[in-house]
Amino acid sequence: MADEPQVQSQPKLPKALFPHISAHAPASSSSSSETKKDDSITPKSSSGSMVDQDGKPYVLDKNGKPCRLCTSAAAWRNLTKQSKAATATSTSAATAASSTSTNPIAQETQNDTRDCPPDVEALGRSTWTLLHSLTATYPEKASASEQTDMRSFLTLFSKLYPCWVCADDFRAWMSEPSGKNQPKLGGRKEFGNWMCEAHNEVNRKLGKKEFDCRFWEERWKDGWKDGRCD
């Protein structure tokens, strides 16, 4: 009897950009038989994110388009590179090469991404700096109106944050049924600890190292005691 042909196993999809999100990808209104073939996109991973043809994960916005503010810079560059490669013609390529070679500013800045729109990581770092700075300047003992203002801010923030999957996740965490994650706004210390725990929750979900919340004031308010911030 002839040997049966070996069946090659399918390659595993990469770890999702947001491993804590299981159902945030916008639902498709058409069936798979109606979907047009797109060589730059492979099927959804089990986490609800998408992966491009090189296996890099990215996230869709609520309209089903790639979300730049929800995706890492590396994945976004890869996605746009694939898109340009699929649509570019020899004429447009020649035109782009000509304009770059005659434009010294373009030559100087084409590899500098510091003034580009932020990716999900840059947005997150800047946002945590803002949020922790808010706790550092929060009153030691907040009045009722100050607590109301901050609660309103956090509610709006969790709705308007540009990375919509991140916003949904933060809002869901705050509204956990037991109420244990509701903002603690009585004063600076408890608000600072609450924000630190919120940050650590995201760190855990993304597989990052947690911060020791005993030192949040040194990190975000007073500076480290070894004098490195003086």
Automatic annotation (TrEMBL):
Keyword line: Disulfide bond, FAD, Flavoprotein, Mitochondrion, Oxidoreductase
Region span, Disordered: 1-58, 82-119
Domain ERV/ALR sulfhydryl oxidase: 116-220
Cofactor: FAD
Keyword field contains Mitochondrion: yes
Keyword Disulfide bond applies: yes
GO cellular component, one term: mitochondrial intermembrane space
Principal EC category: oxidoreductase
Predominant location category: mitochondrion
Catalytic activity, reaction form: 2 R'C(R)SH + O2 = R'C(R)S-S(R)CR' + H2O2
Recorded GO MF terms: flavin adenine dinucleotide binding; flavin-dependent sulfhydryl oxidase activity
Catalytic activity, EC: 1.8.3.2
Biased composition (Polar residues): 1-11
Start-end of Low complexity biased regions: 19-33, 85-102
Subcellular location: Mitochondrion intermembrane space
Protein name (record): Sulfhydryl oxidase
Source organism: Aspergillus sydowii CBS 593.65
